[in-house]
């Protein structure tokens, strides 16, 4: 199992808090959340607290301080696969520990058993791939990769060059699927770039992929800034005009929201998240780290 973390009421006494001997990995948490009976139980308990499940998770995360994270950090400096994982930003790994500890406590309070089989795969059949953005080998890929990301995500921006280089080097062996995960799903500004790019892909898929570098350079998103970046990427004026129109943006906002809702339902809670041949990896990756993951997930001949 590969895990890489690079991404975004009153405190009880530490002695009263639950500290498992070791934390479950991302795939265990996502598998647990992916079971309908578990999700129903968790939602019922959170409703009894007057909270949504997402609000409950955030509440538990806020209760976790650095001293609690330190209990697990030292033993997780290397990947569970046995080789060192490139750590570019330590705080992001610590945030991953915070998130997993929060879910572990929630499962205990709701009397939900954590799926412990770290060798299991997350099935693509649980993900709606209809009309998904994709590129590469769709017939017999060695690797199928699903990426959840947002242009307005600093860690996604950091990870993008490595992802692009992987697609360039291994393109004939990879089916790469992109799914939207807006960090600000409740605002039009937070949905704008993803919605516009969805439209560009629907008009001419090749233009979507050639525009990624340019759009990832943006840090302030508006119709005008998107138009300038698309123009710089040689997207035709008629496509730019159509895809930045109010009608088009509103239409594709719904597509983006559906991607986000689906992601939350299967346990994706931070970006970038990728699924490589059924294995979840969370966080920004260097090219070297990404290649190690590909080698570790290469199907047996």
UniProtKB/TrEMBL annotation:
Pfam families: Thioredoxin_4. Residues 133-295 form the Thioredoxin-like fold domain. Signal peptide: none annotated. InterPro entries: Thioredoxin-like_fold (IPR012336), Thioredoxin-like_sf (IPR036249). It comes from the Bacteria. This is Thioredoxin-like fold domain-containing protein. It comes from Leptospira kobayashii. The lineage of its organism: Bacteria, Pseudomonadati, Spirochaetota, Spirochaetia, Leptospirales.
């Amino acid at each position: 199992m590969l895990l890489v973390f690079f991404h975004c009421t009153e405190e009880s006494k530490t002695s009263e808090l639950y500290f498992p001997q070791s934390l479950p990995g991302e795939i265990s948490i996502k598998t647990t959340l992916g079971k309908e009976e578990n999700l129903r139980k968790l939602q019922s308990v959170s409703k009894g607290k007057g909270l949504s499940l997402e609000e409950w998770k955030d509440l538990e995360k806020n209760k976790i301080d650095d001293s609690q994270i330190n209990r697990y950090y030292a033993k997780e400096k290397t990947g569970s696969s046995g080789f060192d994982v490139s750590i570019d930003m330590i705080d992001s790994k610590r945030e991953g520990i915070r998130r997993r500890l929060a879910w572990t406590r929630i499962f205990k309070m709701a009397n939900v058993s954590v799926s412990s089989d770290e060798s299991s795969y997350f099935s693509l059949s649980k993900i709606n791939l209809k009309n998904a953005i994709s590129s590469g080998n769709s017939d017999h890929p060695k690797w199928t990769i699903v990426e959840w990301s947002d242009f307005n995500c600093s860690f996604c921006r950091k990870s993008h060059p490595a992802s692009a280089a992987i697609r360039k080097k291994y393109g004939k062996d990879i089916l790469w699927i992109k799914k939207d995960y807006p960090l600000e799903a409740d605002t039009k500004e937070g949905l704008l770039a993803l919605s516009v790019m969805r439209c560009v892909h629907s008009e001419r898929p090749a233009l979507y992929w050639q525009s990624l570098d340019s759009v990832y350079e943006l840090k302030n998103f508006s119709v005008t800034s998107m138009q300038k970046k698309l123009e710089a990427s040689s997207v035709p004026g008629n496509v730019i005009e159509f895809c930045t129109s109010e009608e088009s943006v509103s239409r594709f906002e719904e597509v983006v929201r559906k991607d986000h809702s689906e992601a939350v339902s299967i346990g994706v809670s931070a970006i970038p998240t990728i699924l490589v041949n059924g294995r979840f990896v969370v966080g920004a990756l260097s090219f070297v780290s990404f290649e190690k993951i590909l080698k570790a997930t290469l199907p047996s001949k």
